[in-house]
Write a structure and sequence with these properties.
about 110 residues; mainly alpha; about 70% helix; globular
């Protein structure tokens, strides 16, 4: 599944390099952070796809992830002090912790 996450990240590489997910961040840091983000979210998308037998929940989750990653941190932030893209949102370290928690719950439920 990590391979799928890498392919998912490469697919988004053009928007990433244009500053879409991590504006004002060096491209090497952006690529590394986005690789981590994609490897973490793809198992959730895969779970939704296989559990529902439809692509629709995974598509909705992708839309939510994109919105939570790129737009929501700036919507709720102070206009004079926008958040750093590696410290706010789903595709930043707090989001990684949350996604790891979700994946742990899914794994734990499957293991039972």
């Amino acid at each position: 599944m990590a391979g799928t996450g890498v392919v998912f990240a490469l697919w988004h590489l053009p928007t990433l390099l244009l500053g879409g997910q991590y504006p004002d961040t060096p491209w090497a840091v952006s690529i590394g952070a986005f690789l981590v983000s994609c490897v973490l979210v793809v198992p959730g998308f895969t779970w939704l796809r296989t559990r529902s037998a439809s692509v629709v929940p995974a598509v909705v989750a992708h839309t939510f992830a994109s919105t939570a990653a790129v737009q929501l941190p700036w919507v709720f932030a102070d206009a004079g002090q926008p958040p750093h893209p590696l410290h706010a949102g789903l595709m930043a370290w707090p989001g990684w912790v949350a996604v790891c928690g979700l994946l742990a719950v899914l794994w734990w439920r499957k293991a039972r």
